[in-house]
Amino acid sequence: MLEVDREQVVAYRIAAHGLHRTARDAAELAVFDLGLQSTQRDTAEVSVAARFDGSFVDDGRFALAWTHRGAPHFHRAAELGAVTRALVPLDEADAMSRMGWQRRQVEAAGMSATDGLFTAARAIRQVVDKPMTKGAVSTEITKIVPPGLSYWCRGCQATHILEQVMRLAAIHGGARLEAGVNPATLAPIAGRGRLRTTPDVAAATEVVARYLSLHGPATASEAAGFIGTTVTTVKKMWPSSLAEARFEGRKTFLPVSDMDLLSNPPEPGVVRLLPPWDPYLQSRDRATIVPDKARQREIWKILGNPGAVLVDGEVAGVWRTKAGGRKRLDFTVTLFDPVPPAARKAVAAEAERVAATRGFTDLRVAWG
């Protein structure tokens, strides 16, 4: 069994995530193997800019949809069918676990989580036959689904379907999200097939394998955290072609095909500005990325996460932006520890890249 230390694991992950910026095509980026989360404005574009010289959002080879944990992710459009199959719950316990923060409301709905999920999916499939705002879709499907799946929203003074149910059901209902459109707008997936309710263990297993490839070596518990299910469920979709690695006294796993890279990863000598919810920051063992708990609290907040400053394998600080007019983007970079002048210069260059990606022609960097 290969024994690895933190520096080796970090170097591996930086390489696996494409942060050496060697890709010649956005579609080559391994982050799209699992899906690129797009939670806040421009975060996905900035994540790609940290890995690739070019844009991808207007590239028809990619599609945005609510997928893992009900969060919006960009996927390769050609793989959307496989992603949908992978998201069919393996059983009722899996379906209920994926309801996450609305599990209690689903439990009180008077039907199983599986029935609730696919009842909502059928309603979405019936309603979304053209681009429609999220609010309009919610209004229409609330008329169709059983009352237990809906709630009264004081803010809107209207009845809505449970948010997590709608998010998890949309992909099964053949609906994607329109990229770059506000408010959130759903549209039918081109060539969407029939509603599939039968679990596809092979497709689900591929998701686990891709998590382990990007965020490994890792454990079943960490993979379950990403998927939004239980360890028991993940063990039912556990890949067969895995190698073991001893990491900080734990038995962790990685696809056999990635072991050479883990054994001898390139030096993590890159400086990057990673946006909030960047794939690199999505590893469920945060202590590997940022060992200091106080610094973890600075990066992963309940609301309003900052971006992370990556310097030579370490998260060296955080950054935030604020528009200073139509053309200027103001950066505030707060470093945890001093960095060499060359690294500060590289951070400034990365800030220019972020500004250009977001469409700003001028920028100002303030150091905290």
Task: Explain what you see.
The structure is a single chain. The chain is α+β, with helices and mostly antiparallel strands. It has two domains: 2-188, no CATH class; 271-367, no CATH class. It is 37% helix and 21% strand. The protein has 16 helices and 16 strands. The strands form five sheets. Strands 12-13-14-15-16 form a five-stranded mixed beta sheet, sandwiched between helices. Strands 1-10-11 form a three-stranded mixed beta sheet. Strand 10 (242-247) and strand 11 (250-255) form a beta hairpin. The longest helix has 17 residues, at 341-357. It is globular, with a radius of gyration of 21 Å. The N and C termini lie far apart (44 Å). The mean pLDDT is 95. One of its GO terms (molecular function) is DNA binding. Keywords: DNA-binding. This is Winged helix DNA-binding domain-containing protein.
Summarize the entry for a quick read.
With 368 residues, this protein is of the alpha+beta class. It has two domains: 187 residues, no CATH class; 97 residues, no CATH class.
What is the distance, rounded to the nearest whole angstrom, between the alpha carbons of the first and last residues? 44 Å
How much is the radius of gyration in Å?
A: 21 Å
Helix fraction bin: 25-40%
Total beta-strand segments: 16
The 3D shape can be described as: globular
**Low-pLDDT residue spans:** none
Strand order of the largest sheet: 12-13-14-15-16
Sheet-strand content, in percent, reads 15-25%
Whole-number total of structural domains: 2
User: Count of helical segments?
Assistant: 16
| Whole-number mean pLDDT | 95
What composes the largest sheet? 5 strands, mixed
Structural class: alpha+beta
